[in-house]
Design brief:
single chain, binds D-xylitol-5-phosphate, binds zinc ion
Length: about 220
Protein backbone atom coordinates (compact mmCIF):
# COMPACT_ATOMS: atom_id res chain seq x y z
CA UNK A 1 0.00 0.00 0.00
CA UNK A 2 1.46 3.37 -1.04
CA UNK A 3 1.29 6.27 1.39
CA UNK A 4 0.39 9.74 0.19
CA UNK A 5 0.56 12.99 2.17
CA UNK A 6 -1.62 15.75 0.73
CA UNK A 7 -1.44 18.89 2.93
CA UNK A 8 -4.44 21.20 2.97
CA UNK A 9 -3.68 24.79 2.05
CA UNK A 10 -6.69 25.87 4.13
CA UNK A 11 -4.18 26.55 6.91
CA UNK A 12 -1.66 28.22 4.60
CA UNK A 13 -1.21 31.95 4.03
CA UNK A 14 -3.75 32.75 1.30
CA UNK A 15 -1.93 35.97 0.38
CA UNK A 16 1.00 33.92 -0.94
CA UNK A 17 -0.39 30.54 -1.88
CA UNK A 18 2.23 29.82 -4.54
CA UNK A 19 5.08 30.19 -2.06
CA UNK A 20 3.20 28.08 0.49
CA UNK A 21 3.02 25.23 -2.01
CA UNK A 22 6.80 25.56 -2.48
CA UNK A 23 7.19 24.93 1.26
CA UNK A 24 5.79 21.38 0.97
CA UNK A 25 8.17 19.98 -1.64
CA UNK A 26 7.92 16.41 -0.27
CA UNK A 27 4.12 16.30 -0.44
CA UNK A 28 2.39 14.03 -2.94
CA UNK A 29 -0.24 16.61 -3.72
CA UNK A 30 -1.94 19.80 -2.63
CA UNK A 31 -5.36 19.47 -1.01
CA UNK A 32 -7.60 22.44 -1.82
CA UNK A 33 -10.79 22.97 0.20
CA UNK A 34 -13.56 24.62 -1.78
CA UNK A 35 -16.45 25.78 0.46
CA UNK A 36 -19.60 27.60 -0.57
CA UNK A 37 -21.13 28.72 2.76
CA UNK A 38 -24.15 26.47 2.04
CA UNK A 39 -22.96 22.87 2.25
CA UNK A 40 -20.70 23.99 5.10
CA UNK A 41 -20.87 27.18 7.20
CA UNK A 42 -17.69 28.61 5.72
CA UNK A 43 -16.58 30.22 2.48
CA UNK A 44 -13.13 29.76 0.99
CA UNK A 45 -12.12 29.81 -2.66
CA UNK A 46 -13.20 28.55 -6.03
CA UNK A 47 -12.24 27.92 -9.61
CA UNK A 48 -10.11 31.04 -10.30
CA UNK A 49 -7.80 30.20 -7.41
CA UNK A 50 -7.56 26.56 -8.50
CA UNK A 51 -6.70 27.73 -12.02
CA UNK A 52 -4.00 30.00 -10.60
CA UNK A 53 -2.56 27.13 -8.57
CA UNK A 54 -2.62 24.90 -11.66
CA UNK A 55 -0.51 27.45 -13.49
CA UNK A 56 1.90 27.65 -10.55
CA UNK A 57 2.57 23.99 -9.65
CA UNK A 58 2.98 20.57 -11.25
CA UNK A 59 1.93 18.87 -8.02
CA UNK A 60 -1.20 16.74 -7.99
CA UNK A 61 -4.14 19.01 -7.24
CA UNK A 62 -6.56 17.27 -4.91
CA UNK A 63 -9.75 19.31 -4.91
CA UNK A 64 -12.17 18.76 -2.01
CA UNK A 65 -15.53 20.27 -2.90
CA UNK A 66 -17.66 21.13 0.12
CA UNK A 67 -20.38 22.68 -2.00
CA UNK A 68 -23.99 22.07 -2.86
CA UNK A 69 -24.95 21.02 -6.37
CA UNK A 70 -21.70 19.16 -6.91
CA UNK A 71 -23.10 17.69 -10.15
CA UNK A 72 -23.11 21.14 -11.68
CA UNK A 73 -19.78 22.52 -10.44
CA UNK A 74 -17.36 19.59 -10.06
CA UNK A 75 -16.60 18.97 -13.75
CA UNK A 76 -15.12 22.47 -14.16
CA UNK A 77 -12.37 21.57 -11.68
CA UNK A 78 -11.42 18.54 -13.79
CA UNK A 79 -11.46 20.75 -16.88
CA UNK A 80 -9.13 23.16 -15.06
CA UNK A 81 -6.59 20.34 -14.83
CA UNK A 82 -7.05 19.03 -11.28
CA UNK A 83 -5.89 15.41 -11.12
CA UNK A 84 -8.39 14.51 -8.39
CA UNK A 85 -11.85 15.91 -7.71
CA UNK A 86 -13.77 14.93 -4.58
CA UNK A 87 -17.49 15.56 -4.24
CA UNK A 88 -19.56 14.97 -1.12
CA UNK A 89 -22.09 12.23 -1.73
CA UNK A 90 -24.53 14.17 0.47
CA UNK A 91 -24.40 16.98 -2.13
CA UNK A 92 -24.53 14.92 -5.33
CA UNK A 93 -27.81 14.10 -7.07
CA UNK A 94 -26.35 11.52 -9.43
CA UNK A 95 -23.02 10.34 -8.01
CA UNK A 96 -22.47 7.57 -10.57
CA UNK A 97 -23.02 9.94 -13.48
CA UNK A 98 -20.78 12.54 -11.84
CA UNK A 99 -17.96 10.05 -11.14
CA UNK A 100 -18.08 8.90 -14.76
CA UNK A 101 -18.05 12.46 -16.01
CA UNK A 102 -15.01 13.34 -13.89
CA UNK A 103 -13.15 10.30 -15.19
CA UNK A 104 -14.09 11.08 -18.76
CA UNK A 105 -12.50 14.51 -18.24
CA UNK A 106 -9.27 12.82 -17.15
CA UNK A 107 -9.54 13.32 -13.38
CA UNK A 108 -9.59 10.81 -10.58
CA UNK A 109 -13.13 10.63 -9.21
CA UNK A 110 -13.50 10.70 -5.44
CA UNK A 111 -16.44 10.59 -3.06
CA UNK A 112 -16.41 12.10 0.43
CA UNK A 113 -18.48 11.06 3.44
CA UNK A 114 -19.24 13.30 6.42
CA UNK A 115 -18.72 11.70 9.84
CA UNK A 116 -22.38 10.68 10.22
CA UNK A 117 -22.73 9.31 6.67
CA UNK A 118 -22.31 5.54 6.50
CA UNK A 119 -20.43 3.91 3.62
CA UNK A 120 -22.64 0.83 3.22
CA UNK A 121 -25.42 2.52 1.16
CA UNK A 122 -22.77 3.47 -1.39
CA UNK A 123 -21.08 0.08 -1.68
CA UNK A 124 -22.27 -0.38 -5.28
CA UNK A 125 -20.63 2.93 -6.26
CA UNK A 126 -17.16 2.08 -5.09
CA UNK A 127 -16.15 0.54 -8.42
CA UNK A 128 -16.76 3.92 -10.05
CA UNK A 129 -14.27 5.68 -7.80
CA UNK A 130 -10.53 6.26 -7.54
CA UNK A 131 -10.63 7.49 -3.94
CA UNK A 132 -12.97 7.58 -0.95
CA UNK A 133 -12.50 10.48 1.48
CA UNK A 134 -13.55 9.69 5.03
CA UNK A 135 -14.00 12.95 6.94
CA UNK A 136 -12.59 12.67 10.44
CA UNK A 137 -14.08 16.01 11.56
CA UNK A 138 -17.26 17.78 10.52
CA UNK A 139 -16.28 19.56 7.28
CA UNK A 140 -15.94 23.32 7.28
CA UNK A 141 -12.94 24.34 9.34
CA UNK A 142 -9.33 23.48 9.95
CA UNK A 143 -7.90 22.86 13.38
CA UNK A 144 -10.69 20.67 14.76
CA UNK A 145 -10.22 17.64 16.97
CA UNK A 146 -9.97 14.23 15.30
CA UNK A 147 -13.11 12.09 15.70
CA UNK A 148 -12.22 8.54 16.67
CA UNK A 149 -15.77 7.46 15.88
CA UNK A 150 -14.81 7.56 12.19
CA UNK A 151 -12.20 4.80 12.49
CA UNK A 152 -14.62 1.85 12.04
CA UNK A 153 -15.82 3.42 8.77
CA UNK A 154 -12.26 3.47 7.42
CA UNK A 155 -12.02 -0.23 8.21
CA UNK A 156 -15.43 -0.93 6.68
CA UNK A 157 -14.53 0.98 3.51
CA UNK A 158 -11.41 -1.15 3.12
CA UNK A 159 -13.47 -4.31 3.55
CA UNK A 160 -15.92 -3.20 0.86
CA UNK A 161 -13.09 -2.24 -1.51
CA UNK A 162 -11.13 -5.49 -1.12
CA UNK A 163 -13.24 -7.65 -3.48
CA UNK A 164 -12.88 -5.04 -6.25
CA UNK A 165 -9.16 -5.79 -6.49
CA UNK A 166 -8.42 -2.21 -7.54
CA UNK A 167 -6.13 0.36 -5.95
CA UNK A 168 -8.77 2.76 -4.68
CA UNK A 169 -7.20 5.26 -2.29
CA UNK A 170 -8.74 5.83 1.14
CA UNK A 171 -8.13 9.39 2.29
CA UNK A 172 -8.70 10.83 5.75
CA UNK A 173 -9.20 14.52 6.37
CA UNK A 174 -9.56 16.42 9.64
CA UNK A 175 -7.45 16.47 12.76
CA UNK A 176 -4.65 14.44 11.16
CA UNK A 177 -1.37 14.97 12.99
CA UNK A 178 1.57 13.05 14.38
CA UNK A 179 -0.69 11.91 17.23
CA UNK A 180 -3.58 10.60 15.08
CA UNK A 181 -2.07 9.39 11.80
CA UNK A 182 -1.04 5.96 13.05
CA UNK A 183 -4.54 4.91 14.08
CA UNK A 184 -5.79 5.90 10.62
CA UNK A 185 -3.10 3.82 8.92
CA UNK A 186 -3.96 0.92 11.17
CA UNK A 187 -7.63 1.23 10.14
CA UNK A 188 -6.70 1.19 6.44
CA UNK A 189 -6.20 4.78 5.25
CA UNK A 190 -3.38 5.42 2.79
CA UNK A 191 -3.83 9.11 1.85
CA UNK A 192 -3.59 11.81 4.50
CA UNK A 193 -4.75 15.41 4.50
CA UNK A 194 -3.21 17.60 7.16
CA UNK A 195 -3.78 21.33 7.32
CA UNK A 196 -2.92 22.89 10.65
CA UNK A 197 -0.41 20.16 11.50
CA UNK A 198 1.64 20.95 8.38
CA UNK A 199 1.21 24.69 7.88
CA UNK A 200 1.23 25.39 11.61
CA UNK A 201 4.66 23.74 11.88
CA UNK A 202 7.87 25.80 11.80
CA UNK A 203 9.07 23.63 8.92
CA UNK A 204 6.06 22.36 6.95
CA UNK A 205 8.10 20.07 4.73
CA UNK A 206 9.79 18.45 7.72
CA UNK A 207 6.31 17.75 9.10
CA UNK A 208 5.25 16.18 5.78
CA UNK A 209 8.28 13.89 5.95
CA UNK A 210 7.60 13.09 9.60
CA UNK A 211 3.96 12.18 8.91
CA UNK A 212 5.07 9.97 6.01
CA UNK A 213 7.61 8.17 8.21
CA UNK A 214 4.95 7.50 10.86
CA UNK A 215 2.45 6.27 8.24
CA UNK A 216 4.96 4.03 6.51
CA UNK A 217 5.99 2.52 9.83
CA UNK A 218 2.30 1.76 10.42
CA UNK A 219 1.94 -0.16 7.16
CA UNK A 220 4.93 -2.39 7.87
CA UNK A 221 3.87 -3.11 11.45
C1 LIG B 1 -12.04 20.77 6.74
C2 LIG B 1 -11.17 20.54 5.52
C3 LIG B 1 -9.81 20.06 5.82
C4 LIG B 1 -9.00 20.97 6.72
C5 LIG B 1 -8.26 20.07 7.63
O1 LIG B 1 -13.36 20.77 6.39
O2 LIG B 1 -11.76 19.59 4.65
O3 LIG B 1 -9.08 19.73 4.64
O4 LIG B 1 -8.09 21.79 6.06
O5 LIG B 1 -7.60 20.83 8.57
P1 LIG B 1 -6.88 20.18 9.84
O6 LIG B 1 -5.83 19.24 9.29
O7 LIG B 1 -6.33 21.35 10.54
O8 LIG B 1 -7.93 19.44 10.60
ZN1 LIG C 1 -10.49 18.88 2.96
Amino acid sequence: MGIRITPSVLSADFTRLGEEVDRIASADGVHVDVMDNHFVPNLTLGLPVVEALRARTDKLLDIHLMIEDADRWAPAYAEAGAESVTFHVEAARAPVRLARELRSLGARASMALKPATPVEPYAALLGELDMVLIMTVEPGFGGQKFLDLCLPKIRRTRELLAPLGKDVWVQVDGGISESTIERCVEAGADTFVAGSAVFGADDPDAMVRHLRTLAEAGTSA
